[in-house]
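Write out this protein's structure.
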Amino acid sequence: MAAPPAASAASMLSDHPVGRVATLDGSAGTTAKALASFQAKHGLTPTGTNDPATNQALRTASPAEVRAIYSSSLNLTGQELINARTVIGVGFGHGIPRRGIEIALMTAAQESKFVNYTTPVDHDSLGILQQRPSTGWGTPDQITNVVLSSQSFYGVAAFGSNAGLLQIPDWQNLDRGQVAQAVQGSAYPDAYAQWQDWAIAFYDQQAGSVAPITGDTGSGGPGPGGSGTYDVDTYANASVYASPTSTAVTGTLNQGTSYVYCKAWGRQVGSGSSYNHYWLLTDPDVGPARQYVSAYYLSRWGNDEAKDNNGTVIPDC
C-alpha cells in the first residue's frame, strides 16, 4: 500500500452524534413539495414521499413532470443518497468504467429514485433496480440488498441467471439508455435516457468521496463472525458513515465487540495527540449495513493502526 497523504490540520474532524443525513443543497423540502404536487395531480395521497404507488406513476410520467421533481443531482438525501453512492462504490469495487456506473445510476433513478422497495411495486419487482425474483435476478433478500442488486446489474454477482452490464456485447459503444434496457427488459424502454444528464452530474458530484465496495458476494462469503471478518473491541459508541471521507452520519456501532470486513484510508478522526485515518467496513447496530467506522475507536491500538483483537492487521478493502 502506498504511503497515504498527510492530513492537514483542517481535515481533522471529531466524530459527532447520530443524526439525519445532511441535505446537500437544502433541496429536500423543495423536492417533497414537488412530489406532493405530482401525487395530488395523479390522484395519489400527497405525502411528499416516494411510496410504491407514486413510484409506479413516476415510471410512466412525462420527462417534464419528472424534471420538475428531480431537477438536480442534488435532490437526493437520506437513505436514497446512501443507496446511490453504494451503486457507485460497487462499480468502483469491481472495476466498472465510469460510463457503466452512469448507466447503473440512470437505471436506478428511473426504476425507483433509489428507494429500496422491500415490497413489490409492479408484479414482484423489488429493490432500487426493480429486479424480479421470478425472472432470475435472485432471492428477495438478495435483490433488496443494495450491494448485491448493484452487483447483479453490473453482471458481477455470484447468483442469478440474467445478463448484466458486462455481458451486453459492445456495451461501451452503445447508447446508454439502450444498454440499460438491454439489462432490464423494461416495458418503458425509452425512459432511461431522460436520466443521463442527471447521472453524469451526480457522478461528478459524488464519486470523489465514495470508497470501493467489493464484499457481499451473496454466496456464503464474509458475514457475522464468519470467514472474512475480524473481531474488534471499541471503547465507545461510534457514528458510522457511507464512505471513509463522508461527514454525513448514517448510524451507530455500539461499544463492545463487533466484526469488521476490511480497512480503507480516509479523513482523520481524533482528539489531542490521538488520531486515526483508517476506517473499517462493518455492519452497524443502527443504520444500513456495510458502513464505515473510524479505527480511532478501537480499544487496543495506537495512531493509524487498524488491527483486530488478535493483533492481525485488518486487510485493505
